[in-house]
Amino acid sequence: MALSLATLxxxxxxxxxxxxxxxxxxPAAYKVSIEExxxxxxxxxxxxxxxxxxxxxxxxxxxxxxxxxxxxNDLVFxxxxxxxxxxxxxxxxxxxxxxxxxxxxVKLDGKPVQDAVVYTAGSDDSPKLTHxxxxxxxxxxxxxxxxxxxxxxSEVRKNFTGIDRYEVNPDWQLQAKLExxxxxxxxxITNVLGQTSNEDTPGALVFxxxxxxxxxxxxxxxxxxxxxxxxxxxxxxxxxxxxxxxxNLPDANGxxxxxxxxxxxxxxxxxxxxxxxxxxxxxxxxxxxxxGEKAFEGGH
Length: 300
Fold this sequence. Notes:
By secondary structure, the chain is mainly beta. Helices cover 10% and strands 36% of the residues.
């Protein structure tokens, strides 16, 4: 992947700090803290640049790729939101250029633009192009270049009413140990496009449920550990492709709190235009985890 998983998901998925209160020492305060965490997650999802605003993902072919609201374009933007023939993206090697037609009135990072390079392979960030309620920018996934489109007036964002969850259950705040990765092994992470990357891992979280031991490989993302996992509720009560969660970093003794009440849906549960990483096969838990977010009723 051209961008790290941290860049792609840590800000976009809106992780928040672990709860101060533990489930055992103060169950009432713990439940309040989980409710506050979920409230902040919903607020972030609903932002104008949140996942609910995604309205398109278009993969570029080498050369000229026309775009606009007209049906004959290579990239068809929402009807009535932009000129029928707005312009073209030109993919040349590892660069993407944009050339606007007269009257398109598109801005690049807030300034009118007519012709510009908008992406070079390996760039840390991609400038934002805007017109009305639309914002779009270039993304790179492996050797693929695409245009990700947001619409603040998207139907998913306008009609979003929340996410069903399991009742907060203190029993699913578990103590775990980080089993360190001492061999330098990497874990294979495949995304919904079928692309696989080998990611660094500090090790696996080892924990017990009903006296039986389980493990989950993790990745380090900033000051947290990132977990992609699947369980027996997937495809029934929860999203079929698994869920995500973050934990604190281990303390000096390797102790980690893993809180499944903070398990949340990946962006792909809400929109078809995200490129979510999937849980590695070793992170498929052979038990149900009835905690955290359930499947999104408005999902696809």
